[in-house]
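Appendix B.2, paired examples.
Example (i):
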Amino acid sequence: MRRRYGEREERMGRMIGYARVSTSDQDVSLQWEALRRAGCQEPLIFCDTVSGAHTARPGLEACIRALAPGDMLVVWRLDRLGRSMAHLVTLIEGLLQRQVGFRSLSDGAIDTTTASGELVFHIFSALAQFERRLIQERTLAGLAVVLPINSPAVTHKIATSHPGNSL
């Protein structure tokens, strides 16, 4: 069958799951079962027992390596995947660039293979950018209080933080 203009060619990929608990006292079985019900096969469910604040997560790294174009990464909840909103956006943008879909089972409309899910993801992206800018502004405000205003460090930081600024 021939595709119409604007339609994406879709490969029926695999559903690959990722689950994470923060401590060994926690049980991953709730997430595991939800991923299985969503269509993830057991050999394609990757797990970590590590706090989300840690950057080294061998299960997530193996999961991302296993993903191929057309596959779908499925998580039980967003907070199981990313350390922060900015980290989530970076991870999901990387998946989308590789033509890998993303679905969160417990977070409503987050499925990047649908128009509404893509919209929700872009709203999250905008919120992450907003969060980064607020952090920059608070950092600059803190520096301005601590360092004299004519300090080369503050002057350079203010001049380079916002495009178009000139002092």
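Example (ii):
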Amino acid sequence: MDHFSPRLVVRTLALVLVLTCISARIDQPWAQEKNFLWKAAGDKNTVYILGSIHLLKRDRAVLKPIVQEVFTDSKRLVLEIDLLKEGPEKFQRMLMQKGIDGDGKQLQQQLSPETYKLAAERADDLGIDLKLLAPFKPWVVALTMVVMQLQKLGYDPNLGIDHQLARRAKQVSKPVAGLETAEFQIDIFSRLTAPEQEMFLRQSLLEMDQLEKSVDDVVAVWENGDIARGEQLFLESMLAYPELKAKVLDERNRSWIGQIERFLKEDEDILVVVGAAHLVGKEGVIELLKARGHKLEQR
């Protein structure tokens, strides 16, 4: 990865973890809104494509009526990963396999004194002992601290749209599938070089205080179904770093197109739920499908 921006990766991380957001205010008129939701017509079925968020505050954890409607109408739920099969336990196993330094180096040995000192200070703010994270690579520490900060701010992964829909699918015995695996997603970060990982961690720590505003900006875009603003917010700074954008978004988007086109040839309606950053821009899922001749309608 020739062009690496730690600031960009922090924004990307926030989007990956909180992608993309729900929730209009409860007292807003739902029916008058546009949504990060598209309808694609197949020969015999409909495929709905919904932008999601992976963590939500409890007072915003409301499924819009239109989301409930398309979930009910769909016979299968497809998420980025199958949350019923690849839950927290598997994710933790993957972290243990890929997130611990193979040479046995402790975190302090992998970081400059300045970055380690900053990590210790942030860990203290979060109420954790940094020694508990000593065996892990810097990218794992960055992920851990960002998630903990989001949870401290009131965001709960169990309230995320994808998690809510997965639980509902389990309750009604609706089939669930994934476009990719948890291992694939973890590999996006585990393939960062050692210098990139330190910059990633350091910038994550430095920008922790701005995390809530970043998430609030994403929420505002999502709640208004503002595609133009979403493209600007999600993609503008990434354009200067094509290698990172390719790994985090573009390559994954292209790999999903073939799967979605196969869904469009089936007989039953399907709901596909992915992060909203994947749905905007010329390289986004929606425009890629349109370029291949598919007609999509924003709901």
